[in-house]
Records
---
Amino acid sequence: MIPKHLHPLFWDVRLDDFNPGGYPEYTIGRILELGDEDAVKWMRETFPEAVIRRVIATDGSLSRKSATYWASRYRIAPDEVAALRVARQPFP
């Protein structure tokens, strides 16, 4: 269950049926992008650090600002973070 104070972060989910443990990438990504200190505290209590680190590294939908902050906070090299990798342009 998502705590009531976090419901506004999940406006697009039917919260009565939502199991955050079943969708860790979605849940963690939403908190990394939009959450406050209370949301982050709940996330860290709910999910193992390895899962949070994996989401930081693989979630290409994080904004560059959020990805940079979380990569720094979790000491993940920027080139290991999907949202920070520069898209390579094909040669003409």
---
Amino acid sequence: MSRIILAVDPYGDISVDEITKRIDIVKKYIAGVKIGLPLLVRFGMPGVKKIIDVAKDTEHVILDFKLADIAPVMISTIEPFIGTGANEVIAHAFIGLDGALKEFKEYIDEQGLKLILVASMSHPGSTDIMDHVLDKIINVVDKLEPYGIVVPATRPHIIQYVKKKLLSRNIDVKIYSPGIGVQGAKPGSALRAGADYEIIGRSILYSPNPLEAASRIAHIHDEPVSLR
């Protein structure tokens, strides 16, 4: 079972057709894709739908449009993608429940989608605020019962802390960890810390040999998953 979520963001002058070609090449090694806002901005809905079409036979087709707003705005952002094959949506946990996440989750539940909440981020600046309010964010997770949360691979101690808190409160969510590769975390490190999936983008998608890169990381994952 793959633990790789392929982050799909356009860099340089790459075309959407080239991105879909690379996804298709590595598809047997990935559990799904995470479609970022830059791809939507550059290629529009037709581009996003092309990515969904090539990835929709994977387990996770995640829309990551940086949602952090009131419920009506988030709903109107996601609404055009209902029925396209996307099955998971990422939103920020720090925006809270009433008027935002509560109503948004009710909507996507009705549409048969799963919610993933961002608990912390992989860049250093996330330590300024987000890491200081993790307990409050875990309270939001406990009340909302999302499918998953995002916790950074770049700070394994944060994964361990969050995992311990979740277990102590019998909160059952999947942990997705970005920051592998270009941002400095090594493949497998997040899984060893307690994550369920590693979100990996440029190290695979922009490798000179995406198939070899995906295969190598998948084999690295075999050991830490068995040790958990």
---
Amino acid sequence: MSSTSSRLRTHETNGITKVEFVDRNILDEANIQQIGEEIGRLIDGQVNPKLLISFSNVDHLSSAALGTLITIRNRINSKDGQLRLSDINPQIYSVFKITKLNRLFQIFDTAQQAMASFT
């Protein structure tokens, strides 16, 4: 897979990998699967992964994408890693609240706050 077809932009700072989405709408099942695989490779390549997923560019998120986030969380936890989410717009955050996923994930208003929370 070439990097031009990636659904993600990644940036590493101080051992923390920040992931941003290329797409504003994360609804398509094939794209969600690709995102899950790309993030899975990032996790697998680290001993204690520290991952920040920023939703700053995202307007819409499907329930399948939420399922992928849970899978990512479980993979990170199994490697004693840390996961943070940030920059979730209010419409998407309301879905996290309704599904109680806001209790499952550490969610921050900004990527800067999330970065500062890693130990």
